[in-house]
Write a structure and sequence with these properties.
The structure holds 2 protein chains of 2 kinds. By secondary structure, chain A is of the alpha/beta class. Chain A is built from 7 helices and 17 strands. Chain A has 2 domains: 2-165, Rossmann fold; 188-312, 3-Layer(aba) Sandwich (Rossmann fold). In chain A, a hairpin with a 2-residue loop joins strand 2 (9-10) and strand 3 (13-14). Chain B is globular and about 65 Å long. Chain B contains 6 helices and 13 strands. In chain B, the strands form 2 sheets. In chain B, strands 9-8-7-10-6-1-4-5-11 form a 9-stranded mixed sheet, sandwiched between helices. In chain B, strands 2-3 form a two-stranded antiparallel sheet. Classes of the chains: A alpha/beta, B alpha/beta. At the A-B interface, helix 2, helix 3, strand 7, strand 8 and strand 9 of A face helix 3, helix 4, strand 7, strand 8 and strand 9 of B. The structure holds flavin-adenine dinucleotide and adenosine monophosphate (AMP). Residues 6-8, 36, 38-39, 60-63, 89, 92, 95, 113-114, 116-117, 120, 122-126 of chain B line the site of adenosine monophosphate. Flavin-adenine dinucleotide binds at residues 198-200, 224-227, 240-243, 255-257, 259, 261-262, 265, 275-278, 281, 294-296 of chain A.
Chain lengths: 313, 248
Amino acid sequence: MSIFVYVEDWNGAYKKSSFEAVSYARIWANSLNTSVTALTSSVVSNPSVLGEYGADQVLTFEIAKTGFGLAQQLQALIQNASGVVISGTNFGKSVAPAFTALSSGALSSNTTSTPITISPLTVKRGAFSSKGIETIELSSEMPIICFVPNSIGVQEFPTACTVTETQAEGNDLLSVEEITIASGKIALPEADVVVSAGRGLKGPEHWGMIEALADVLGAATACSKPVSDIGWRPHNEHVGQTGIQVNPNLYIAIGISGAIQHLAGVSASKTIVVVNTDPEAPFFKAADYGIVGDAFQVVPKLVDTLRAFKADQ
Amino acid sequence: MNTLVCISHVPDTTAKINFTSDGHSLDATGVQFVINPYDEFGLTKALHLKESLGGTITVLNVGGPETEPTLRKALAIGADQAVRIDAIPSDAITVAQNIKNHISANSYDLIICGQESIDYNGQQVPAMIAALLQLPFTNACVGLDLSGSEATTKAEIDGGHATFKATLPMVIGGKKGIVEEKDLRIPNMRGIMSARSKPLKIEMAVEGVAPTKAVSFDKPVVKTAVRMIDPENVEELVRLLHEEAKAI
Ligand SMILES: Cc1cc2nc3c(=O)[nH]c(=O)nc-3n(C[C@H](O)[C@H](O)[C@H](O)COP(=O)(O)OP(=O)(O)OC[C@H]3O[C@@H](n4cnc5c(N)ncnc54)[C@H](O)[C@@H]3O)c2cc1C
Ligand SMILES: Nc1ncnc2c1ncn2[C@@H]1O[C@H](COP(=O)(O)O)[C@@H](O)[C@H]1O
């Protein structure tokens, strides 16, 4: 019996949530006194690095291109499992339910905690767009956890680890025609820091200072829904109840009023900073630090101060 | 073109969420329920396809009688018929199994779901339906073009977009982008009147053993009062973020 973890790569390189997935599996495996088996693409050049986060063995294989194809491969490779961990990236969210359906497993998606009890297995997950926290019980021989990136953090568990190459059948039911990645950008769901701006910025031409702030913090940029609706920013930056849900360590909201639908997607952030001219803006109620002030004055000053701070570090 | 649009019935986005005193479930008192926002985009897409290709639109919900007003609203927006599979939708795989059974007994060219229900934020049902039926699936679908039985879908992936090709029938988990917000349909008077006479069929559910169970619900801890900082003193913010919040 082993805890299996699918470790996602992007073009042969691991992401932070890949290591977090292995840490998650290790913590779970420790509570069961069992081992961690990582499954990962053979394209990755350094799979043994997964040992640092707790993998005992790594199986590499040529992975299918789509969620269903990979789910079939996982089904073929995962034998004698006590449980399976998949990170809740966009791809992971296609793989996990497909694998659950194929393996008659039990899935907790949007999971935000490591196991709370082991028998029966319970974990916490976000529900009602962060307005609620559900404790869910999984009763199946094949419990599957799809966790929210950034929710438990990367943890090191140096482990002696073996790497074995293998193969598995997986059928992609659709063909991939094209993939475009906004280069140099930090993907929102995984970002540690998110700098977000709203209609208070008055127009797309004012996003330069937002990008500068994001740049100095190594942050991803986001926006409120009306901003993407009007076309000031791309749709995939829209955060909130009907957009991307984020839980970074730091969320900086500039010129966003803090409507309930916006808060629903960001309130799980660990620290929230709000800059708004209106002292009555509802966002201040959800904030840790607030500045009542004009973004056009505060943000450039903040960028300068942070640059000086970073230079000193 | 026969399209199935799967609709979940969820609290309005402005709803304050409370749980029953035993913590076991949502306290629905005073909560207004609506068509899941992601599914509104799907329904409008189905209407566009019908307008150019003909065919029928069926809307389906797995739920109790309380969801019928939501299905009627979908009929008022323009769906031709509605189906309610009578079950408490407590677990994604049981919902997906029931939808799968319905699809197997009927013939659809396209199954449109939303990327996610905004109640339990599962993001599970569409991929499960597709896997159970071994049909192509595109999640986070922001574009769908059909040419005969060939579908081109565009999806959000982490940090970018992907384009796929598949042969119908297929399943999508759609969101804003498959149609634009400004094109969303709302019911008009004629729609509301005609919805009353459109068929709403109730089908029996196959009850499986749900492998997951909600044990309890809690509300997130409320933040302590915000700490206000003088706009002239952003140095103080940087210091607090570093020393107190340890966020930078
Ligand atoms: C079904 C539904 C779903 C929705 N889903 C989402 C969602 O997922 N995400 C989302 O964000 N919204 C969502 N909304 C919209 C939401 O209700 C709000 O309308 C939206 O979040 C407001 O965006 P905003 O804060 O950018 O704009 P506004 O509400 O217009 O606020 C602008 C703010 O900027 C401040 N401001 C103005 N000038 C300055 C300045 N110079 N410096 C600093 N501050 C300034 C103002 O005081 C104000 O607080 C949804 C709405 C509906 C009906
Ligand atoms: N009870 C249900 N009845 C019909 N469709 C559903 C139901 N639950 C989920 N769906 C569909 O699956 C999508 C994603 O839901 P979920 O997996 O619950 O996040 C929704 O947008 C609907 O299209």
